[in-house]
Each structure stands twice: as structure tokens, then as C-alpha cells.
Amino acid sequence: MTELIGQRSTRAWQDADTAHFLHPFTDFQALAHKGSRIIESAHNIYLRDTEGQRILDAMSGLWCVNVGYGQQALIDAATQQMGQLPFYNSFFQTTTPPAVALAEKLAAITPAQFQHVFFANSGSEGNDTVIRVVRRYWDLLGQPERHVIISRWNGYHGSTMGGASLSGMTYMHAQGGLPIPGITHIGQPHLFEFNLQRRSAGLPTVEEAEFGQMAARWLEDKILEVGPDKVAAFIGEPVQGAGGVIVPPATYWPEIQRICDKYGILLVSDEVICGFGRTGSWFGCETMGTRPDLMTFAKGVTSGYIPLGGVMVGERVAKVLIEQGGEFEHGYTYSGHPVACAVALANINLMQSTQLIEHVRDDIGPYLAQGFESLRDHPLVGDVQSCGLMAALHLVRSKSSSGPEVFDPQLGVGMICRGHCFGNGLIMRAVGDRMIIAPPLIMTRAQIDDMMALIRLCLDRTLVDLRTRNLWV
Ligand code: PXG
Hints:
The structure is a single chain. By secondary structure, the chain is of the alpha/beta class. The protein folds into 2 domains: about 35-65 and about 355-470, Aspartate Aminotransferase, domain 1 (Alpha-Beta Complex); about 75-355, 3-Layer(aba) Sandwich (Aspartate Aminotransferase, domain 2), CATH 3.40.640. It is built from 18 helices and 17 strands. It has helices at about 1-5, 10-20, 30-35, 60-65, 70-85, 95-110, 125-140, 160-165, 170-175, 190-200, 210-225, 250-265, 285-290, 315-325, 340-355, 355-375, 415-425, 445-470; strands at about 40-45, 45-50, 55, 115-120, 150, 185, 230-235, 265-270, 295, 310-315, 380-385, 390-395, 400, 405, 425, 430, 435. It has a 7-stranded mixed β-sheet with strand order 4-10-9-8-7-5-6, with helices on both faces. Strands 1-2-3-15 form a 4-stranded mixed β-sheet. Strands 11-12-17-16 form a 4-stranded antiparallel β-sheet, covered by helices on one side. The termini are far apart. The structure holds 3-[O-phosphonopyridoxyl]--amino-benzoic acid. The site of 3-[O-phosphonopyridoxyl]--amino-benzoic acid has 17 residues, from helix 7.
């Protein structure tokens, strides 16, 4: 491999990177000025860059390397399948053993209503498939006017035209005339932000349980506004990932389920981040107690070793597509790619044989939650949330008795903190001033201890830095 790619200095890689590679979600000029960090290898939970620095990857690549780096079973599965059959399609009444075996395995590990899967290559493609499936379902039932899909502001569902439209990121919509028609958004169940707004409006704050119900009822308001006979589906992430690890109150999802049931609206759980153990169950909907009709997955299905995504189609929908649908005019060249499916199977088998879900649910999930709770005493930490192996802390300017006060977003305090993390060998993501992690599920308690110590160190350095810059009073 290194023979094909060749050895170069960090600088040489950076120059070629700038000359030819347009990175995703990147200000190209700013990156050209700064130069990329080049990640060369990885093992377990650690990355190594071309400068020889070891970095604790508390983001699992990008929310995906659930089993950690260097798992031989996944490498062997890919190698074996590459040799035997690197590719064949599943379009013209053909199939391949890895795709069939994975479909069967997914039917076994997902909630009982899921017996069928449609394969894609990413979460974005999975969510585009969701739009196609949902609209086809209502067409087949003779309700073609039921095309509106409700999503949430600050939810993330991908970057294709469909995925970005479902996403509630206004800065994405601003580029390219999005959302596409028939997609509308409601507020997110973000208690910290909601209460900040209440306080600044001079209104009393709201308790968590009450807020969960309130935020769910925004869905009912929207359904009534659009017209119940026009709404096809509601989509949401069990815990919002890219939006900043926003864990909804326990009262939120049961109320959402009740509202979907009341109006006969399809419930779509976007499990691209929450699936495959992240929340301490196989799927986030199990942690949150919902019964989705469709479930998007990607990332953790292969632990990111190779691209694969898809949609689990519940029997309510599958029955209609199969029995009444005729040909479904949708699919991707690589739907059911045999190498990706073989790696996914090895990944799921490894998760089962090592009882990785139980490890998160019973041991390190609660242990991480404890660690994060202990950060509440830090002067910069105004809020803490966690669920399974994902967690967030909100950086604040002060914590007076009347409630936390946030920094001016223009100051980029989250990015300053992220800089200290990078500098100290820790990958932690900043979403505004919310610092988030989603580390590999294989972490041991000792590794969590090391990570927590690093996080505290980086918070301390951030505080010193803010004082030096006169941003902390
Ligand atoms: N749904 C969810 C819930 C996601 O988190 C997608 C769909 C799209 O998946 P693909 O495979 O098309 O990227 C995602 C992806 C971030 C970040 O900055 C998060 C994602 C992707 C890129 C960046 O946290 N999540």
C-alpha cells in the first residue's frame, strides 16, 4: 500500500492536498492557509499523524469506528471477499451471499417489525431512499397528497439534496435552494437552549419533563398546520448527533410516538449515529422506546471500515411495497455491495461475540456519564448531557444563580477549546460552544479515565487562554 502511495513529508502531503483535494464542509482557502493534519495509521482508539503524534480519537473517526481500529476479523472478511467476489450487482434478479446473509442478520438484530432492508452506501443515500419509500407508500395507498415529511431544525440527515433538505441546518439550505418541496421543520428538544431563550425573554424556565411534552407537541401543531392528510412521515435522530449531542427529555419520544400513531403518520428513526450500540442498545429507538416504521443506518454498521448504509423497512410499509408496488424505480450500483456486506457481517458478529452492546449499557456508558457529570464543577462547564457512549458539555461564560450565561458565538470559544484538544492529543468536536465526544465502544474504564483527564486538562488550558485574551471575566 505504502508502495503505491509513496512516502512524503507532511509538507509535501499538505501541498498536494491543497492543490487537488476539495474537502467536505470546509473553507478551502482557510484550510490551504493552515494545512491539513495527515492521519497515517490507527490502532484501537488511537490515531497517528505524519508528525508521529498519537491522538486519542474520541469521535470514532466520524461517529463510526464503533469497534475501534485494527480489528483483524473485519480486515480478513474484506480480504477474503475481495478475492472471492469483489463486486456483483443486485439489480437484475441476481444477488450475492454476503448481501443475503447481512439482510438476514439485520432482520434478526433490529426490532421485530423489521424484516426487510434496502441497501445504500451512506446515511445520505439512506435518507434519500427514505423519501422515495415514504412517498411511494402513500401513493400506493391512494393518498398521493400525503407527501410532506416533517423534520427538525438542527437535526442532521445528510448532504445530498434530499438529506440536506431533511437536515435542519439553515446554513446548508442557504446553499443550493433547499429544502426541496414537501419538507418542513419543527423545533428541536434542546432544553438548555430553550431555557436560555426563556431567560433572555424574561420568562420562567421550564422543567425537563414538561419540556419534553411541549417539544413533542410542536409536531402536532405542525401536523395540524400542514393538514393531517398531507403529512407522510416524521423523521428524527433518537439523540441528535451532529447538532451537538442533544439528548431529549425522557418524555419526548413517547409523546412523538403517540402523535404519529394518532395521525397514522410514519415514524422514521435516523439511526446513522445512534445505531449499532452507540446509545447502549442495538438501536437508539430501543433506548428511547419508539416503534419506528423505517430506520436509516450507516456508519456503525461496518464500523466505518468500508462505506455502507441503508434503510430498514418495517412490515407496515414493506407489505405495501411488495404486494401492491410492482417495480420500485430506485437503487444504487453498490446497493448490497458484497465486500461492504461481508465487513458488516464480521463487524456485527464481533459486536455480538464480545458483548459490546452490554459493555456500553452496563459498564462504560454509565462510567462515562459519571465522568462527564464530574465536569460540572469546572468554571467553563454550564451543561452536561450523555447517552451511552456519546456526551456533550456546554461551555459558558458564567454560572450565576439566575442561570448560565453563554459566550458571544462570534468569539468561537468552542473552536479555541478544540484547538487545545488537538494540541494535547485528543479529538473532540466543537458544535458552537458545545464540546462533544462519541468514542469507540471498545473503550476500557482505564482509557475513559485517561480521556477524562485529558478533557479536564484541555478545559483548564482553554480557561487560561481565555483569560489571557481577556475573554474571561
Ligand atoms: N444521518 C445522520 C443522523 C448522520 O449523523 C447522516 C445521516 C449522513 O450520513 P453520510 O454517510 O451520508 O455522511 C449522518 C452523518 C459531524 C458530521 O460534523 C456528522 C455526520 C456526517 C459528517 C459530519 O458531526 N453524520
